[in-house]
Amino acid sequence: MSRADTVRRRAAAFVADPRKRRRFYAVTVLILAILTVFPQPYVARAKLLPQDNNSIGLGSMMNALGGQLQGFASLFGGAKQQTDMYLAVGRSSEVSDVVIRKLKLVGPDGYWSVNRARNALAKKVDVHSLTGGIIEVEVRTRDAEEAERLTRAYVAAITDRIVALGKDRVERKRTIVSRRFREAADRVVTTENALNDFRRRNRLAEPQVELGAALSVRAGLEARLQAKQVELQTLQKFQGPENPQLMAVQSEVAALRSQVAQSARAEAGPAGPNVAGLGEVSGEYLDLFRDYRFAQALYEVYARTSEEVAVETLAGETEANVQILEAPRLDADRKFNIAAFALLVLAILAALFTEIYAPATGIRLFGGRREDMVA
What's the pLDDT score for residue 307? Predict the structure, then answer.
């Protein structure tokens, strides 16, 4: 008979013996009950509240400008999920490496390598989110001081990492905004000079006002011409061709016709272009004026954005974008070893099934007679 067969026979004999089996259950339950309580685990935790970096964002500025250029807000940040970002940062290798270096977990008194330290921290530390977008750092160890120390180190590392990322983002934003702000200022100067040159070249102060005035003058000339034509027709019915009054009205009608015809031709006099000339240059003027107004609006946007960047820079320097709701602390209630407790429950259930339920229902789990099982 082989050694394996001998071991199997002894094991079968052991489990078939109710007294030995029950002693085994009792010893197992006792050991697991002790392991559930000792060694005592300690849980330390801290809570962080993600801050919205766009609370003084471009969206409010665009609304203040009457909804103009709202698309530019997407260039400088917007709807980034702060909770997801904090979770990604808290679970990143950069944070764990900072904690390892700060607490000197690798060395003669610590772990053999950085990878072992990372694996150990992954088992001890859990960074998760709570209701309301709150980030919680939870550390579970066998040592109370170690739990608090790890929690404080993780909170400090997450805070430093968030601040560093914020400073980098603000620095890149400031570079872009500064360049675009200078370009917007140059654009305002260019469009303003082009508009002023156009006005001087065409001897215009305000083309809209002058065009309205010229149209009024032309409308007045046409109205006077129609009135004089009616008067001329009336005089021709009752006066002879040599009548001085008739001749005077004919002269006035001819003069008015000449003035109306002259206003229909595009001309530029010492006082500026007439109504036909204004009609020809009004399209070009409107294009230049529209470019000038757009350049002004763009300049105002980047001026406000530069102020926002300055505020964000100050907030990053003072670490205002990381708010600690609850400082690192130990839980007041007593903790238990969950793994040992789970095994204890399984052992009790196995004992109840094999020693009470199976005999009561006639289930034959082990070899032998039923009388032996219920004995």
Answer: 86
Q: What is the dihedral of CA 201, 206, 209, 213, to 10 degrees?
A: -30
Nearest to 152 by CA among 304, 12, 326: 326
User: What's the one-letter identity of residue 107?
Assistant: G
Q: Specify which residues 129 forms β-bridges with.
A: 135
Could you tell me which residues are beta bridge partners of residue 43? 140
User: Do the beta carbons of residue 320 and residue 51 sit within 8 Å?
Assistant: yes
Q: Looking at the chain, which runs of residues are DSSP E strands?
A: 42-50, 125-129, 135-141, 268-269, 272-273, 322-330
Nearest CA among 52, 44, 46, 43 for reference residue 90:
46
pTM for the full predicted model: 0.59
SS3 267: coil
How far CA 309 is from CA of 148, 175, 296, 298, in Å, comes to 36, 10, 20, 16
**Are the beta carbons of 102 and 157 closer than 8 angstroms?**
yes
Looking at residue 59, what is its pLDDT? 47
Per-residue pLDDT reduced to its tens digit, 12-29? 777 788 888 899 999 999
